[in-house]
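so my prof wants the structure for this chain in the tokens format not the other one, which i didnt know existed until like an hour ago. anyway here's the sequence
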Amino acid sequence: MMAPRSDARGPRRRALLVWPKFGSFSFWNFERVCQLVGVKYMTPPLGLLTVAALLPSHWELRLVDENVRPLEDSDLAWANLVLVGCKIVHRQRALAVIRQAVALGKTVVVGGPDPTLHPALYRGVGAGFLCLGEAEMTIPRFLADLDRGVLSGVYEAGRAAELGETPVPRFDLVDHRDYLYMAVQYSRGCPHHCEFCNVIDLFEHRYRTKNPAQVLAELEALYRLGYRGQVDFFDDNLVGHVPKAKALLRELAGWLERHGHPFQFSTSVTLNVAQDDELLALFRAAHFKYFLVGIETPDPQALRTARKPQNTGFSIPEAVDRIYRRAGATVHSGFLLGLDDEAPDIGQRIIQCIDATSIPWVMAGVVYPLPGTQLARRLEAEGRLFPAARDFDDEAIRDQISAGIQFRTRRPPSHVLDDLLRVLRHSFDPSRYFARCAEAVVRLDTLPNLAPGVRLFFRNVRTFLRLCWTATWAGALRRPYWRALTRVVLENPSGLEAFATLSVLYLHFQGLLPYCEEQLGKQKAEIARLGEARWLERMGAGAPEASLA
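here's what i got, hopefully its the right format
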């Protein structure tokens, strides 16, 4: 178990926690959505808020989320300790922040997924302390050394943290009004072994959970701060241990009832939740409204090759329909192309799957061999991995949708790119998108958000009016949007909030699609100009073997 946060009075330090800005044109950077709603960013940096809770209570803390406001020289001048957290997509900006802080003579502490995977990069720009792995295991050792006057150090977790004593994140360090929704975490890791996912490697193949009382304490903290609205569970898979998940959902439903339903929830789950009627009913009672589900591919053989058999053995459209009708939640999903052993007609099969499931929010891309994954290691051993993917240091490939192909695929790369472009264009054609929105929403057996609060109510009304105005004056959206809205009002008005949310998200996809087409088009053009064999040689994976052609 982790050591509790030290409250022993030591030097009074001023610690600045920095969350670097996401780059533009990322799938996860919903700038246009935030502008329409009137917030600055989607969600706060939960990891840094948890780190803040592990620091001594007598320290002065300040958190700068660069997605909300820029880092100022005065912030760095105020601090005598700078803590930077980052993921892979933050790398270049995080390195720049570290250089800036070091130049001013500040002691820098770095942690997060990317430093854990690539510590030398961060040590090389002057970070004094590296906390590699989960903060519950590394922060107490860092603090002990700091109190002893140690000036630098590398702290590796060594093992996965137990979550039973993880403190309530310091939600008070951010203004919840800056964000579209807030977040909590119940579990870490995933019990499955999908070879393209780095979660199992980062968390040592261990799935761990907090107890329900801890989760309720975090909700109480948000409630006391005056927050009302959506709370996302930042879990890679909330249902990794189904009996525990059911116990949590029962507690959540009771807490919501006692507090007048101030929150509704979203999270990530595996598609096989649809096989458990009790679980779906509990999700509905606990007001879970949005699920992120990795369908990946409708090809069973490709799923088995990718070590994701949990998505096989049942009908994907029927499973999604059960989630709509029994959990009352919409499904957002990812689809992958370029998987080994995928069928030649996989592009058309994915399109048919999207239409059959009526999933509006589609994240499609070529499977990316993230550093540290089983997939990256296998492709490296087979001589199929491109050097750029090995280092993940090219700013242009950080968005995994627009990154294109980063390894030698078994199917011709031009075919893979053609299929991806077809899937993207089909998914975000406005007529098809809004038709899927309406079809999904009319199937929802959802519980309305009973008490959103005055501020949230007026924000939602303002957003809806802005949405209607935007859709009316955008020629391509006008007819599809109003036709779908009319159907929802007539057939399932309780799903209006879900429809509005899905419609607002389209503004993000509409802006992202041209960028993805441009980036993927560049890779297609280069393959056509050089020919497949020379292109592969230039990318560093050699000429294709006959067995892979």
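also thought this was worth mentioning. Confidence is low (pLDDT under 50) at residues 545-549.
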